[in-house]
Design goal:
This is Ankyrin-3-like. Pfam families: Ank_2. It comes from Momordica charantia (Bitter gourd). The chain has 176 residues and is mostly helical. The chain has 2 domains: 1-102, Ankyrin repeat-containing domain (Serine Threonine Protein Phosphatase 5, Tetratricopeptide repeat), CATH 1.25.40.20; 107-175, no CATH class. The protein has 10 helices and no strands. α3 packs parallel to α5. The longest helix is centred in the middle third of the chain and has 13 residues, at 109-121. The termini are far apart.
């Protein structure tokens, strides 16, 4: 049941307000298909949860309906998946969780590239490495927008962002 002018359900609102226990109770009461309901902007409650960054809320939803991270709107391809939203809102832990639950291969190659480059731009190298392990050829792919590759993005990083030379030397020397 929609509760406001934006078409939000009680679950959308509870996720936005970060009410873990309320979400827990709602998830127990509703069907897994109800978890996939979208508001008027085309967002599921999981998408709203991905904005909040509360991984426990997302986990409750995904445990009940594992297809949620993969619900893409063919009518509105500009509507991003929850993992993209987590990255856009700089929710590192949420992005890592959702990436593990997203069918990465179902994303269009341009979406995979954008996700990969966005993680590098935000210095989420652990997530970027997970993506690269899934599809190594993304290292050479170019963005449609400007032709950049991941290397272009890395090369524009300020000195010291990726690791200081003293850290690298310590790592190098301790390996021997």
């Amino acid at each position: 049941m929609k509760l406001n002018d934006e078409g939000d359900t009680a679950l959308h609102i509870a996720a936005a307000k970060k009410h873990v226990s309320f979400v827990h109770n709602l998830v127990q009461l509703i069907s897994s298909s109800d978890l996939a309901l979208k508001n008027d902007r085309g967002n599921t409650a999981l998408t709203i949860a991905s904005m909040s960054g509360v991984v426990k809320i997302a986990k409750l939803m995904v445990d009940k309906n594992p297809t949620l991270p993969n619900l893409l709107d063919p009518q509105n391809p500009q509507n991003p998946s929850p993992v993209f939203v987590a990255i856009a809102y700089k929710r590192r832990d949420m992005a890592s969780f959702l990436l593990s639950k997203t069918n990465f291969y179902a994303l269009h190659t341009s979406q995979q590239i954008e996700l990969f480059i966005a993680t590098i731009s935000l210095d989420y190298y652990d997530i970027a490495l997970k993506i690269l392990k899934k599809k190594p050829e993304l290292a050479l792919e170019r963005r449609e927008e400007n032709g950049d590759t991941a290397l272009h993005v890395l090369a524009r990083k300020p000195y010291g962002t990726i690791g200081s030379s003293s850290e690298l030397r310590k790592t190098y020397l301790t390996d021997f």
